[in-house]
Design brief:
Order of helices and strands: HHEEHHHHHHHHHHHHHHHHHHHHHHHHH
Low-confidence stretches: 1-27, 448-453, 489-504
Number of helices: 27
Number of domains: 5
Mean pLDDT: 75
Radius of gyration: 29 Å
Strand order of the largest sheet: 1-2
Distance between the termini: 32 Å
Shape: elongated
Helix content: over 70%
Strand content: under 5%
Length: 652
């Protein structure tokens, strides 16, 4: 299909560009993220152990104090190796202040405060993942503990294992409330992942990230007694939304210590509920966790803007939508689509105000206006997860909406080749869409097990893929118009078919098929991850039924397109195919611009216009301008083909 050398070069260039942009969109490279996680790990260790090294301005243990000095210097060295924060003067100054506090033998509270400032700035600047992708399994954590930890920490975690004798420092006693109250599961996660230099605690790189979280939550739960957990369960059942809001959902339970969540004067009820949620993280509903993340990122964004950090505020605002709110959009769309649209628009307005450097008062008004809307989201969604009807409808509409565009593109290409009597090269098209499906399942697995696909990365990949699809679909649509006359088509078959189906072009067919399917599947699998958690055990059957129903509808649609396409006369078939492919290019253009706007790659200029999601029509100047350009190009192509060219043709 894409036979012109310039088009083929542009096609390959945009594919390479999509990979490059996806890499640039990440807040930090994987190597940088790992280095930053090590810094956070060191800071947590210093916060917990400095008090044992220095007391009242005097060194209590020379060995411990030397270790603290070594650790903060190492953290400073690692920070200097992070290009992403090299120009963050405030962060560098906070790190220097921490080192100075340790060198001057400052009080433990001062060191903890300094370490907390560096930790918080690092987490927000690089958007580090401080919570698991899904609720940890304490059952799996117990198995990992029994297989790897009991020799030092003992069968019940008291630090009294057979190999503990003589170790310095002694293995951690996970029933020690004074020590554990100042640590978070995230801190334990990093200790398991990286180990502690100079001690018997080694790293466990063989564990997946989810396994590390399973073990961290299990260790954290050891100090809670069964009676306290049961009391917490009863209290939580009475007001689940209020408790989850207080503790920040799975994000808060993972990233914060008991002391941070409860405060100095903790009431027994809150302690009991926290013990229950730490011991049963599966009780945290995925949607509430996403809303908690949205709130946390918005709050951090607002604080950054007040501090004059406009770039960081904008990045966090983008993350609040893509990494937080977008996860609940499928579920919310099933119960209150108007609320979903309203919040989407308000969050866009908040981002635009930051980008335009509006006054602090104006940005603050937009920020505060979002908070009650997020409360409304939690009220709209069932406290026990999605209802079966909502689960079915969400699963059905997600797959049908995303799959329809891919089906139309692939079916149109297949039908064109059949009409051209080129069934012998259909397997190239099949290689493309089958490869996309396999990679889609790989994406599902990798997103939960190996990598954290941030919302910004996802939207950039979708946006760039959409733009590639726009170019290809518009080109093919124009090519069909140009060959609408039957005699032109026969001449094309006679003179061009061999060159048009050369090896390079046949693999281009596979590329078109792959892009059309994977672009939709990429978004679909990530939406389904969130939907599966939100539905809960009672709604997951309805999600499966909704998915299978959508598959059935798509199969019927494929059959209908193929049957009608083969039987239609050549001229009407070409006209219908051209119109269909152009319409898809028009839709992809709008959706591609929207995705890049949501990722923060393009500005958003609202205009007074209608919004038609299924057509990709959105009320922004940027998306409408591109679609207007496509419309003008198509009108010119029609005029050139049917008016200008016949007039210029010599009379016979």
């Amino acid at each position: 299909m894409v036979t012109h050398p310039l088009m083929r070069t542009l096609f390959l260039f945009l594919l390479l560009l999509s990979g490059a942009q996806a890499a640039l969109a990440a807040p930090a490279t994987p190597a940088e993220q790992e280095r930053a996680q090590r810094i956070v790990h060191i800071l947590a260790y210093v916060s917990a152990d400095y008090e044992g090294a220095v007391q009242h301005g005097r060194v209590a243990s020379e060995a411990e104090y030397a270790e603290q000095q070594e650790f903060v210097q190492r953290a400073r060295e690692l920070l200097a190796e992070l290009p992403s924060v090299a120009d963050n003067r405030g962060l560098q100054e906070d790190m220097a202040a921490l080192v100075q506090a340790v060198e001057s033998k400052a009080d433990a509270d001062v060191v903890k405060q300094r370490a907390g400032q560096v930790r918080g700035a690092l987490l927000s600047s690089l958007q580090l993942q401080t919570a698991p992708a899904q609720a940890p399994s304490l059952e799996n954590g117990a198995r990992l503990f029994a297989q790897n930890c009991v020799s030092c920490h003992g069968a019940k975690g008291f630090g009294d294992g057979p190999q503990a004798r003589g170790l310095e420092p002694a293995p951690t006693n996970f029933h020690d409330r004074a020590r554990l109250d100042t640590l978070s599961p995230y801190g334990l996660h990093n200790t398991i992942r990286f180990g502690v230099n100079g001690t018997a605690m080694g790293a466990y790189p063989q564990f997946s990230d989810q396994q590390v979280w399973d073990l961290a939550f299990y260790l954290y739960s050891l100090r809670y007694d069964e009676g306290q957990v049961h009391r917490g369960q009863a209290l939580f059942a009475g007001e689940p939304a209020a408790w989850l809001d207080r503790f920040g959902g799975l994000q808060g339970l993972s990233a914060k210590s008991d002391h941070e969540l409860l405060g100095a004067q903790a009431d027994p009820a809150a302690q009991a509920v926290l013990a229950y949620l730490r011991s049963h993280p599966e009780a945290v509903r995925g949607s509430t966790s996403a809303i908690a993340l949205t709130r946390a990122r918005l709050e951090a964004s607002w604080q950054a803007y007040q501090a004059g950090q406009q770039a960081q505020a904008y990045s966090l605002a983008v993350s609040a939508y893509l990494d937080g709110f977008e996860a609940v959009e499928p579920a919310l769309n099933a119960v209150d689509p108007a609320l979903r649209t309203r919040i989407e628009q308000q969050m866009g307005a908040y981002r635009n105000a930051i980008r335009a450097r509006e006054s602090v008062a104006e940005v603050g008004t937009l920020y505060r206006g979002l908070l009650p809307e997020l409360d409304a989201v939690e009220a709209a969604l069932s406290q026990r997860g999605l209802s079966p009807a909502a689960g079915f409808l969400s699963a059905f509409t997600i797959l049908l909406r995303e799959g329809l565009e891919a089906v139309l593109v692939v079916a149109a290409i297949v039908t064109l080749l059949v009409r051209a009597n080129r069934r012998d090269i259909l397997h190239y098209v099949h290689i493309g869409w089958i490869g996309a499906i396999l990679l889609g399942f790989g994406t599902w697995w990798a997103a939960g097990k190996l990598i954290a696909i941030t919302g910004a990365n996802r939207e950039v990949i979708e946006g760039v893929s959409a733009m590639v699809a726009v170019l290809i679909l518009f080109y093919v649509s124009y090519w069909l118009i140009a060959n609408l006359e039957v005699h032109k088509w026969k001449q094309f078959l006679h003179e061009k078919i061999q060159r048009a189906t050369g090896k390079g072009s046949m693999w281009a067919l596979a590329g078109v098929s792959f892009i059309a399917v994977y672009r939709e599947l990429f978004e679909t699998v990530l939406f389904y991850q969130a939907l599966w958690v939100q539905a809960g055990p009672q709604g997951q059957t309805s999600v499966i039924v909704g998915t299978l129903s959508a598959v059935a509808v798509l199969l019927v649609l494929i059959w209908a397109i193929f049957r009608l396409g083969v039987r239609l006369p050549l001229r009407p078939f070409f006209a219908a195919s051209s119109a269909l492919l152009y319409l898809l290019a028009f839709v992809f253009a709008g959706k591609g611009v929207l995705a890049l706007q949501e990722a923060g790659w393009l500005p958003t200029t609202p205009v007074a216009f209608v919004r038609i999601d299924w057509l990709g029509v959105y009320p922004t100047l940027e998306s409408l301008a591109l679609q207007g350009l496509l419309l003008a190009a198509m009108l010119f192509a029609v005029f050139y083909t049917f008016v200008w060219t016949p007039r210029m043709r010599p009379a016979h």
